[in-house]
């Protein structure tokens, strides 16, 4: 497999509990691509994302992420892989007892970076998402849009090779959504980070090149 | 307020468990010393035709620990009062040998009977008197008190253990989201559970210190001023410095296992 390939799914089958969600899916994602995956509710978009960060295992076929076979990946390797991923959730999944700054540097803390590096990175990232003045606040003191910007900053903290986003603007108004799309476009263009977004609708304001997959009838198909 | 309540609801049952353990240790020491006292006071009276040494008695039953010969000259003197010298010597010659023997432990009546039978097997032995009735009453009462206390301590410890588990479930609920998020971002077990371990270890230390404090108060103030003889005499057996290590070790073991299971409970559930 080429080093340029970030995700490779071959005859992939996923299920949620006993229910089959995806069958015989084949797709490849290359470094620096921006991918949208759309589909109706319950089609398996979030299940696919969970398989990509190792929360669930494929029931059939193969799924390789960053060179790791997700069928047979060991726990310590999965942990290591996750430290190189940026994950954004619809419900933000911020730690409410921690300040904005501490939430942002979580991936750096896990990777064992020094406090100085964490401080510097937190300043840079919070400036990037325009939340410098909010660094000592707590997530519940912020609006939904602001919380998601913290989530994006956290996802980008360790310059991941792949950002996975699950309906990142699902709970936001148009203005906040546009800010989030801008941040993710920038990450893809400037840092050459691969971004895979699961969403029910592609934003009209999106201007960068992207690939679009749709999940339908348990299959994943590319829309040209 | 929530912070304090969260700690108190863990410290309280933990203290009950530790108090139970310390009561158990102290009670065991006090009863051991009481048992020793009973054992030392209790003796079997043996009459023999020939002189017996401790080794002779031990060869009959290994539980025989001490043998004391009763001075038969004194006895003969009392019996032969008013008689002449030769009469007195005659009585002394005819008298058998008398012994008080003591055992190495405090046994129940059936064991005493078996020891008596062993002694009586020897042809040198004329008779054995073991005062079984008075012994039996003391022994039964003593065993009953010991049993009741142990059952009570075990019951208290069980109830408290369930309270600790309940508090752990609350902690599980409070920390679940944080630990899940950390796990998604690849945090290892120790980093995910670090906060919980710190809180639990601090609470375990506080519980140990409070429990030790209560017993030290009993030992140095309450027992001293109680005017209850048995407490005043056995004050030193209430709390010993090694107990602090036992209590701390127990408390830490409980929290380490409890936190481990809480953290395991949050793993990769979806």
H/E topology pattern of chain B? HEHEHHEHEHHHH
Q: Determine the CATH superfamily of the largest domain in chain A.
A: P-loop containing nucleotide triphosphate hydrolases
How many helical stretches of chain A? 7
Number of strands of chain B: 4
What fold name goes in the CATH topology slot of the largest domain in chain A? Rossmann fold
Topology of chain A as a string of helices (H) and strands (E): EEEHEEHEHHHHEHEEE
CATH architecture of the largest domain in chain A: 3-Layer(aba) Sandwich
Keywords:
A: 224 residues, alpha/beta, Rossmann fold, 2 domains, six-stranded mixed beta sheet, four-stranded antiparallel beta sheet, 10 strands, B: 270 residues, alpha+beta, 9 helices, 9% strand
Description:
The complex is a heterodimer of chains A (224) and B (270). Chain A is of the alpha/beta class. Chain A has helices spanning 45-52, 75-82, 100-104, 106-111, 115-128, 144-156, 174-191; strands at 5-16, 19-30, 34-38, 60-65, 68-69, 85-88, 162-166, 194-198, 211-216, 219-223. In chain A, the strands form two sheets. A six-stranded mixed sheet of chain A has the order 6-7-8-3-9-10, with helices on both faces. In chain A, strands 2-1-4-5 form a four-stranded antiparallel sheet, with helices on one face. In chain A, a hairpin with a 2-residue loop joins strand 1 and strand 2. By secondary structure, chain B is α+β, with helices and mostly antiparallel strands. Chain B is built from nine helices and four strands. Chain B has helices at residues 2-41, 54-60, 72-79, 85-94, 109-120, 132-184, 189-225, 229-233, 241-265, and strands at 44-48, 64-70, 97-103, 125-129. In chain B, helix 1 (2-41) crosses helix 7 (189-225) and helix 6 (132-184) runs antiparallel to helix 7 (189-225). The chains are: A alpha/beta (224), B alpha+beta (270). At the A-B interface, helix 2 and helix 4 of A face helix 6 of B.
């Amino acid at each position: 497999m080429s080093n340029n390939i970030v995700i490779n799914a071959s005859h992939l089958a996923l299920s949620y509990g006993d229910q089959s969600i995806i069958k015989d899916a084949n797709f490849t994602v290359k470094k620096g691509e921006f991918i949208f995956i759309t589909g109706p509710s319950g089609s398996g978009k979030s299940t696919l994302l969970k398989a990509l960060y190792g929360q669930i295992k494929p029931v059939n076929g193969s799924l390789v992420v960053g060179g790791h076979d997700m069928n047979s990946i060991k726990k310590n390797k999965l942990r290591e892989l996750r430290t190189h991923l940026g994950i954004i959730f619809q419900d933000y999944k911020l730690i409410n007892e921690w300040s904005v700054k501490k939430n942002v540097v979580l991936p750096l803390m896990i990777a064992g970076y020094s406090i100085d590096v964490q401080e510097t990175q937190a300043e840079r990232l919070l400036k990037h998402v325009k939340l410098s003045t909010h660094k000592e606040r707590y997530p519940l003191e912020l609006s939904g849009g602001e919380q998601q910007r913290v989530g994006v900053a956290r996802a980008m903290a360790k310059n991941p090779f792949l950002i996975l986003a699950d309906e990142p603007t699902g709970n936001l108004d148009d203005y906040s959504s546009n800010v989030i799309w801008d941040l993710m476009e920038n990450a893809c263009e400037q840092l050459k980070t691969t971004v895979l977004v699961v969403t029910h609708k592609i934003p009209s304001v999106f201007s960068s090149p992207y690939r679009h997959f749709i999940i339908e009838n348990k299959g994943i198909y590319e829309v040209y | 307020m929530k912070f304090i309540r969260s700690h108190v609801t863990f410290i309280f049952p933990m203290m009950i468990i530790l108090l139970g353990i310390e009561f158990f240790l102290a009670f065991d020491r006090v009863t051991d010393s009481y048992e020793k006292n009973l054992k030392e006071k209790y003796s079997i009276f043996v009459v023999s035709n020939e002189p017996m040494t401790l080794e002779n008695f031990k060869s009959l039953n290994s539980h025989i620990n001490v043998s004391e010969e009763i001075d038969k000259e004194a006895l003969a003197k009392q019996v032969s009062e008013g008689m002449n010298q030769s009469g007195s010597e005659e009585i002394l010659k005819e008298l058998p040998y008398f012994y008080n023997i003591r055992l190495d432990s405090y046994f129940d009546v059936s064991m005493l009977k078996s020891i008596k039978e062993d002694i009586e097997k020897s042809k040198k032995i004329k008779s054995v008197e073991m005062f079984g009735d008075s012994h039996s009453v003391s022994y039964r009462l003593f065993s009953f008190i010991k049993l009741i206390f142990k059952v009570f301590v075990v019951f208290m410890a069980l109830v408290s253990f369930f309270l600790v588990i309940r508090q752990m479930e609350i902690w599980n609920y409070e920390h679940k989201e944080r630990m899940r998020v950390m796990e998604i971002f690849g945090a290892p077990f120790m980093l995910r559970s670090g906060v919980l371990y710190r809180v639990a270890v601090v609470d375990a230390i506080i519980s140990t210190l409070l429990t030790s404090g209560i017993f030290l108060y009993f030992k140095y103030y309450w027992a001293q001023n109680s005017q209850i003889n048995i407490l005043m005499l056995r004050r030193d057996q209430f709390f010993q410095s090694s107990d602090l290590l036992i209590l701390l070790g127990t408390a830490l073991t409980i929290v380490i296992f409890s936190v481990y299971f809480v953290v395991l409970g949050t793993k990769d559930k979806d």
